[in-house]
């Protein structure tokens, strides 16, 4: 079955959606929309009809599935129109600019029974998949701590979100995915170092009740770093999101040792192994998953509700920064 796909927003991210749909089995990129006239070149390159008005595109092309890759502040309005048109909708991360807007989208999609997916791309990173498998098989034992570093220079196209909602939200979502639950509390600090209008650096501490996560995100560091570490009672894993390398150190913890010499031997050099990961473009895996779910009528991974939870935790982190206090993560059931 061929799924007719459209893309709204052909900027930094949306152009990659167009490129990938144009090459994805089972998908036909029929059209793309952007308010900028220059974006027509991108649409043409991938064989898509171009529209300046995405509503006209929805009406005329009647796609089965759509990617929304407009700036975050427009996700709610554009996403609403797509869902109302009954089109299976993938909205780039973060789902929306606020919890209220994210909830509106989720409720609308649920009430109209329209599939809604959120582009939390790292869920489709092959190294993350391999790490999740290790965790689920108990190879790392009980998880105690997670750290993530997502730092680099300022991306000039980000005009409407701060570093927590735009960047840290990736790791906020992954923490919930890897721990399998939401944090109970959050404490965060953020500041405006090089950007006078929005937070451009943040440190976030998430309390999972028995496990903790520490996230660092900024647009200050002159080199792009995307790293994750997970410590459990059975071992320690180091993951590089960019190179998709995953290394595991097996725990050598033993309760008794007779001498300091024994201590050094037992604790000094753990067994280390590189976990084989078949490298692949995460966005390709994400979009193929979306297309195949639409074709089969199955709910996609990373539902609107999961996107809403990530926005909720990111918003609580922002509230903690503003109030200078620990914030309980309250999830409204509605
Ligand atoms: N998953 C990821 O790793 C990742 C990476 C970058 C950006 N993003 C997300 O993608 C979204 C877009 O970010 P970007 O960096 O591509 O921004 P961008 O500014 O480069 O591109 C946005 C495009 O949307 C167009 N646009 C704006 N309003 C429109 C409308 N009403 N109709 C049609 N087109 C419209 C703009 O003209 C622009 O071309 C953001 O939500 C961002 O958080 C995700």
Bound molecules: nicotinamide-adenine-dinucleotide
**Class inferred from helices and paired strands:** alpha/beta
| Poorly predicted ranges | none
Assembly type: single chain
Total number of β-strand segments? Answer: 15
Residue share in helices?
Answer: 25-40%
The CATH homologous superfamily of the largest domain: Dihydrodipicolinate Reductase, domain 2
- H/E series: EHEHEHEHEHEHEHEEEEEEHEHHE
Number of domains: 2
User: What distance lies between the first and last C-alpha atoms, to the nearest angstrom?
Assistant: 35 Å
Q: What is the helix tally?
A: 10
User: How much of the polypeptide forms β-strand, as a percent range?
Assistant: 25-35%
Major β-sheet annotation: 9 strands, mixed
CATH class term of the largest domain: Alpha Beta
Largest sheet: spatial strand order: 14-13-12-11-7-10-9-8-15
Overall 3D geometry? globular
What do we call the CATH topology of the largest domain? Dihydrodipicolinate Reductase, domain 2
Overall average pLDDT: 94
How would you describe this protein?
It is a single chain. The protein folds into 2 domains: 3-120 and 283-292, Rossmann fold, CATH 3.40.50; 123-280 and 313-328, Dihydrodipicolinate Reductase, domain 2 (2-Layer Sandwich), CATH 3.30.360. The model has no long low-confidence stretch (mean pLDDT 94). The chain has 10 helices and 15 strands. α1 (14-23) packs across α9 and α4 packs parallel to α5 (99-112). A 9-stranded mixed β-sheet has the order 14-13-12-11-7-10-9-8-15. The chain is α/β, with parallel strands linked by helices.
């Amino acid at each position: 079955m061929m799924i007719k796909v459209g893309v709204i927003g052909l900027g930094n991210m949306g152009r990659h959606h167009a490129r990938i749909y144009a090459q994805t089995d089972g998908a036909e990129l029929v059209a793309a929309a952007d308010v900028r006239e220059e974006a027509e070149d991108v649409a043409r390159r991938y064989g898509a009809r171009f529209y300046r008005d995405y509503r006209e595109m929805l009406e005329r092309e009647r796609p089965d599935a759509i990617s929304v890759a407009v700036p975050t502040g427009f996700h709610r309005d554009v996403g609403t129109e797509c869902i109302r048109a009954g089109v299976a909708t993938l909205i780039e991360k973060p789902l929306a600019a606020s919890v209220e807007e994210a909830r509106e989208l989720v409720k609308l999609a649920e009430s109209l029974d329209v599939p809604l997916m959120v582009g939390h791309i790292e869920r489709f990173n092959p190294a993350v998949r391999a790490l999740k498998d290790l965790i689920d098989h108990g190879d790392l034992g009980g998880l105690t701590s997670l750290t993530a570093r997502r730092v680099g220079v300022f991306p000039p196209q980000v005009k409407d979100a701060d570093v927590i909602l735009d960047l840290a939200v990736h790791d906020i979502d992954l923490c919930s995915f890897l721990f399998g639950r939401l944090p109970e509390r959050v404490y965060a600090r953020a500041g405006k170092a090089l950007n006078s209008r929005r937070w451009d650096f943040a440190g976030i501490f998430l309390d999972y009740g028995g496990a903790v996560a520490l996230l660092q995100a900024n647009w200050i560091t002159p080199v792009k770093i995307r790293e994750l570490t997970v410590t459990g009672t059975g071992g320690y894993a180091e993951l590089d999101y960019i190179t998709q390398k995953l290394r595991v150190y097996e725990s050598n913890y033993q309760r008794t040792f007779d001498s300091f010499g024994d201590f050094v031997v037992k604790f000094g050099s753990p067994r280390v192994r590189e976990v084989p990961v078949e490298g692949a473009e995460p966005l390709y895996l994400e979009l193929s998953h979306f297309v195949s779910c639409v074709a089969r009528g199955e709910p996609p991974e990373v539902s609107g509700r999961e996107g809403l939870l990530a926005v909720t935790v990111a918003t609580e982190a922002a509230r903690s920064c503003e109030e200078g206090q620990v914030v309980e993560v309250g999830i409204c059931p509605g």
